[in-house]
Amino acid sequence: MSSGGSAIRGSRVGSGPMGEQDHGFHAERIAVRYWDALGNETVRYFAANLPEEEIPDIIDCPTSGLPAGRDQHNPPALSKLEPYKTHLAYVKERRTEEEAAQLLEEALQQLRKRRGRLTPTN
């Protein structure tokens, strides 16, 4: 063995011959720039052969979380935020009071049946 040590020291596994310029096929791509209301710019890269209608007009800016559009001088406004709804609020939107009472009674009957009591206790 030579005094220089390992032949692969300093090179990545699978990197190919030293000095190789082309490490695979690089597809043509285009850069699309987006701006949010705070002026933050984000660049996204898309395949050059991608149809224009498949490139999004608005993305979420990774810096601010705001919507970002392709027009620097007219960025999209923040859409109205919906207040947080609990699961119960969504259920109440879908069910009437009568339906809720019926579902509750059915659930209580099943529970009583499992526990061995078929009559409600007061």
Molecular shape = elongated
Numbering strands along the chain, what is their spatial order in the largest sheet? 1-2
Q: What is the gyration radius calculated from CA atoms?
A: 31 Å
- The CATH class designation of the domain at 29-69 is Mainly Beta
Helix content: 10-25%
- Derived structural class: alpha+beta
First-to-last CA distance: 91 Å
- CATH topology title of the domain at 29-69: Rubrerythrin, domain 2
CATH architecture of the domain at 29-69: Single Sheet
Unreliable spans: none
Helix segment tally: 2
Main sheet specs = 2 strands, antiparallel
| Beta-strand residue percentage | 15-25%
- Strand runs, count: 4
Average pLDDT, rounded to a whole number, is: 82
Task: List the secondary-structure elements in sequence, H or E.
Answer: EEEEHH
Explain this structure to me?
With 122 residues, this protein is an alpha+beta fold. Among the domains are: 41 residues, Rubrerythrin, domain 2, CATH 2.20.28; 41 residues, no CATH class. Helix content is 22%, strand content 16%. The protein contains 2 helices and 4 strands. The strands form 2 sheets. It has a two-stranded antiparallel sheet. Strands 3-4 form a two-stranded antiparallel sheet. A hairpin with a 6-residue loop joins strand 3 and strand 4. The longest helix has 19 residues. The chain starts with 28 loop residues before the first strand and ends in a 7-residue tail after the last helix.
